[in-house]
Design brief:
This protein has about 425 residues and is α+β, with helices and mostly antiparallel strands. Helices cover about 60% and strands about 10% of the residues.
Amino acid sequence: MLLLSRLHSPNTRFILPLLITALMIIFHPFFTPFVVTYSQLWINLPFILLGAVVILNYKQPQAQSGFIAIIMLVAYSVILYWLQISLVNTDTKLIFCLLATLLPINLFLLRFIHLPKLLSVGTGVLLLLLMIQCAIGATIGYFYQQDFSNWQHIHLFTYHNISSLPLLLIIFNLAVCCAAGALAVKYHRRIDRHIFICSLLTTTTFIFFHYQLISSSAFILCALFLLIDLTYTHYQQSFRDPLTQLADHRALAQALTQLPANYTIAVFDIDNPTTIINKHQSQAINDIQGSIAAILTEQTQLSPHLYFVAQQFIVIFEHKKIADCQAIIEQLQQAITSEKHTIAPIIIEPQPQQIATTVKKPRKKAIKVSVSAGMCSANTEQTTAAVLQQAIDVLQTARQKNKKKQQIYIVENNDDTLC
């Protein structure tokens, strides 16, 4: 699993699917005898694997990956039951072009649709939309099947020596792949990785549709990608703090053993937490910590090494000295200070004599807070645990002596001054 964490760098998220897809295209003709021998298993395997993806997303708080698997299952069913006839047939060509148009659009739209869970109204709406699209495709096929062949050659520019997919649809599918890949590189989100992988492999299926059982191979590979990524995500969840959803002390202990020689550790903590508790309530600190965690999570450059341990936020900067990290920390402090952090009100049950009267609902409060940070860079004579402890100690010691807010405290042996 540590190896998997290394494979989740932005460049790897983009290059690895491309590499595996290219290898599939190159070696697929050599594996065709094996695939044909076990054709029944090969045809049914995508249903089993994609079904497993749907099941794994059953209790996920964000179930977009399950919806992606549903769309892929519908697309594979269309390929299996309506596109096994030669594409010389006009009806088959029309269904093929409609599928190559609608599938990338449906995949890409899921990135912008909020779906809280798999078993919800959203599932019914999605299935209804897919049924409407199938009905529209059948209607178009019924009324325009005679003229579609000529229209395809005139407007879609099909070059059979390149691919059975019209040139305009090849460009469209590749554009969707590039857009999905850019999102996967820029944002550290599971849904972006899954859309990129699915759009890449379905585009490969459509372009190389003349390969025998290419759709089964591509959809199997797609399902395996999704399953591996989901398995890693489930593994990560066991090392997450339930309050902030950031990596916890167990993940930090693993990360400390994998750090390079050059790194800097920064520890954040809320200023004057006792004052906040006295003025509001103890739950207010939890609400503020959750709000700060959301702000830190938005900084994608921090995602690989962002932790919440013992009520403190810990950030590890690899291959950076303190001077390089100060500007980043100051920006984070400004972002946290400028944000209004919402505190949930205390809900008090009404007394029996108050039931007859109207009880006002408590309102949420929004307050501003600041954070201070302690920093320590790597020393060849120190262990990673010692560097972390020094960053914690310099923050706690300096805050006991200095009551100023929004400060950056640096360990003295780092040849930096107190900020």
